[in-house]
Amino acid sequence: MKKLLIIGASGHGRVIADCAEKMACYEQIAFVDAIYPEKTSNLHWPVIGDDTFWQKHIKDFEIVVGIGNNDIRLRITRDIIARGGKLATIIHPSAVVSEHTDIGAGSVFFASSVVNIGCKLGIATIVNTGASVDHDCEIADGCHIAPGANISGGAIIGEKSWLGIGSQVIELIKIGDSSYIGAGATVVSDLAGHATYVGTPATQLRK
């Protein structure tokens, strides 16, 4: 059996560990985190090194980045790829992910999430609890689809975008890179990106 190393011993990392445990395909699940050695466990999973440990042991584990921040997660994931590491893809047993979907390495799919046929998801993507991505969507690298968010068919979501809890995106919408969609927002028109959008319909939040 395989061994899994999760970078980041946070709450998000614990959810990944719980999903991986339920997959029943890893003989060992462990964390690394900058707070080590002050922190040596994360619930019943060990924290075995600091945040550079994985670089020295890159061939010993499958690795996934358990950090919610999109920029940091994507940067570390790309570093793992550049160093020749093997990224894990974690799919909770209750998630429904079409076998006719392209999934980027290092992505995670939490309980009751759904990804339908014809989708393309980039590396280091999070599809969180109860979120859904309908047919033929394109989700770029480093995105986070938060709990209960729903994306209708054919939508395109730009790199490092964050769709907040309970947000909705109608079909065929294009959302630009580094967009932050607020909780409960409804996206009914294309968004340029590099901004925060809130409300129904979603509009740019002015500073």
Q: What can you tell me about this protein's structure?
A:
The protein has 207 residues and is of the alpha/beta class. It folds into two domains: 3-88, Rossmann fold (3-Layer(aba) Sandwich), CATH 3.40.50.20; 89-198, UDP N-Acetylglucosamine Acyltransferase, domain 1, CATH 2.160.10. 14% of the residues lie in helices and 31% in strands. It contains three helices and 25 strands. Strand 3 (41-42) and strand 4 form a beta hairpin. Keywords: Repeat, Transferase. Substrate binds at residues 10-12, 68. One of its GO terms (molecular function) is transferase activity.
Please indicate the count of domains.
2
Characterize the main sheet.
8 strands, mixed
Please give the share of residues in helix: 10-25%
> Could you say which overall geometry the principal axes of the C-alpha atoms support?
globular
Head-to-tail CA distance between termini: 51 Å
The overall average pLDDT, rounded, is: 97
- Share in β-strands: 25-35%
* Rg (C-alpha, Å): 17 Å
Number of strands: 25
Q: What is the oligomer described by this structure?
A: single chain
CATH class category of the largest domain: Mainly Beta
- Give the neighbour order of strands across the main sheet: 7-10-13-16-19-22-24-25
Number of helices: 3
What is the architecture of the largest domain at the second tier of CATH? 3 Solenoid
CATH-defined topology of the largest domain? UDP N-Acetylglucosamine Acyltransferase, domain 1
Keywords: Repeat, Transferase
GO molecular function, one term: transferase activity
Domain PglD N-terminal: 3-78
Pfam families: PglD_N
